[in-house]
C-alpha cells in the first residue's frame, strides 16, 4: 500500500510542470473576420456571440482627428472609396483615411477585403465583397457597441485596440496615441484591472505610451514577421531574453507572428521555439497573431492541430484568430472555458 502511494507520488512528481494560463485568451482578430467583413459591426457582434474574450480594434485617424476602426491607413481595399471619391487619391494611387473627414468616411460602404489592383477577394471563401451594407465605425461607436453587448449578454468581452502607425500619423501632424488613450480612459479602460490591451508595432511609441502618456493599462509590443520595425530597423533584439527583459520594463506582453512560436514548414518538421519560455521568464504575456482556418500556418495540418500545438505545447497565453468560434470550441471541449 505504502509502496503504491510512493509510486503514485513519484509519478506525480515526474509529470511535466505545465504553466498553462488558467484561461487562454481568444482574441477575435478584426472581429469574426473569417465570416464577415473585417472590423464591421456585424463582425464584432458575431465574435461577441461566439464567445471571444477580446475584440480587436485597429485604429487610424480621419482628417478631423476622429479615431476610426480599420486596419490600413488606406481605404481602397475595404471600401468603395475609389468609386465614390475618384479624384481624392494621392500621387501614389492610395486613398488615405487621413485625407477624409469623418462625414466623408461615413458615406463609404465597407466591404470584404479585396486586392485593390485586381479587385479579387483576398480570401475567396469569405463573405462576398460588395454584398449587404456595412460602414466604417468610429472607435467610440465600437466601444459603445461592445459595452452595450456586454450589458445585454451579461458577459464582459474586452477590447484590444492597436494604435496604427503612430510615427506616420505624427509626421503628418496627428498625435494618434494622445487622441486614443483619453477615449479609452473615458470608457472605463484605464488600469490593468480593466479588460483592455493596447498594442502597437512601434517600440518607441510603446515606451512613450507608458511613460510620457501615462498609460496604466495592459500594453503589448507587436513584432512583424520580417523581424523589422516599421521604420525598417532590426527588431531582432526583442526576440532575445535580454530584449524581452528590457521590454518588460514598459510593456506587459509581446505579440509575434505565429512562426516565431512554432518553426517549421510542415507538421513533421515543426519545433516549438524558446520564444514563449523566454517571454514568460521575463514576465511577458504572449499573444501571437494570426490563426486562420483558410490560411493555416505551414506547421499545422488543421485548425485543431494548430490550436493544440500553440496551447498545449508552446503554452501561449492566447492568440489572435479570424475564427474565434473554433478556438472557443477547442477550449470548451477540454474544460478550459
Ligand atoms: Ca491589428
Question: What can be said about this structure in brief?
Answer:
This protein has helices spanning 2-14, 41-50, 81-84, 102-105, 139-153, 166-171, 176-186, 203-210, 241-247, 275-281, 303-313, 324-333, and strands at 25-28, 54-61, 67-69, 158-163, 197-200, 218-222, 253-255, 262-263, 271-272, 285-286, 318-321. It is of the alpha/beta class and 337 residues long.
- Judged by helices, strands and strand pairing, the structural class is alpha/beta
Q: Let me know the largest β-sheet.
A: 5 strands, mixed
Percent strand equals 5-15%
Report the C-alpha radius of gyration, rounded: 21 Å
The stretches of 5 or more residues where confidence is low (pLDDT under 50) are 10-20
The helix/strand series, from N terminus to C terminus, equals HEHEEHHHEHHEHEHEEEHEHEH
* Intertermini distance: 37 Å
Number of helices: 12
Mean pLDDT: 94
Overall form: globular
Number of E strands: 11
Please give the share of residues in helix: 25-40%
Hetero groups in this structure are: calcium ion
